[in-house]
Amino acid sequence: MGQVPGEGLRDRLLETALELASPGLTLAIPSLRAAARACGVSATAVYRYFASQGDLNRAILLRIDAAFVAAMTEADDPRLPPVERLRRLAAAYLEWGVAHPGLYQLRFESADQLGADYVYSGAADDVLGGIGQLARAAGADARVAAEDLWVGMHGVVSLRIHKPHMAWPDIETQVDRLFALWGFAN
Q: Of the chain's two ends, which shows fewer C-beta atoms within 10 Å, N or C?
């Protein structure tokens, strides 16, 4: 395989591995060799940037975490009332998960399989903590509401990923239904 200059190769390898993982339902991070092959470089070139499969796994998970947090942060507007902010965050969660099923599964459904390689930045915990504060501002028990919101959103994404043949409502409608069930008024 042709050698690509080292400049930016680490990021290219990481982006390629993310692209390979994104559409799948395998709950597996692509191998170092698969990333090298897809980038058109030798397998040994990868080891300049990732000493092991575990290093690639951790780098991918941190990149996934950053992408998820960015989507959530972009959806939030602190000028809006708490319930509307929660609604926007819930929709962003669903949209990101459905748009990136493989990455979603690696981030939220692979901890047991990846063991010591499973890492996250903590920024997602900050987002979830912020959701708890918004829930409290909306009149709910912060911890319980944040957990219920997460369980609900996770369930919806997981079902949409694993049951794509079902006639799901659009995301806004689904969020509205769930918020009505949870007692969040407009």
A: C
State pLDDT tens for residues 33-64. Answer: 998 999 899 989 989 999 998 898 889 889 99
pTM score, whole prediction: 0.81
Split at pLDDT 50, 70, 90, the class of 90 is: very high
Residue 136 corresponds to which amino acid?
R
Give the separation between CA 17 and CA 1, rounded to whole angstroms: 18
Which residue matches tokens 């979603």?
104
How many CA within 13 A on the CB side of residue 39? Answer: 29
Which structure tokens are listed for 5?
């200059």
Look at residue 30 and tell me whether its pLDDT is greater than 70. Answer: yes
CA distance 176 to 186: 9
Write out the chain in H/E/C secondary structure. CCCCCCCCHHHHHHHHHHHHHCCCCCCCCCCHHHHHHHHCCCHHHHCCCCCCHHHHHHHHHHHHHHHHHHHHHHHCCCCCCHHHHHHHHHHHHHHHHHHCHHHHHHHHCCHHHHHHHCCCCCHHHHHHHHHHHHHHHCCCCHHHHHHHHHHHHHHHHHHHHHCCCCCCCCHHHHHHHHHHHHCCCC
Report d(CA 98, CA 96) in Å as an integer: 6
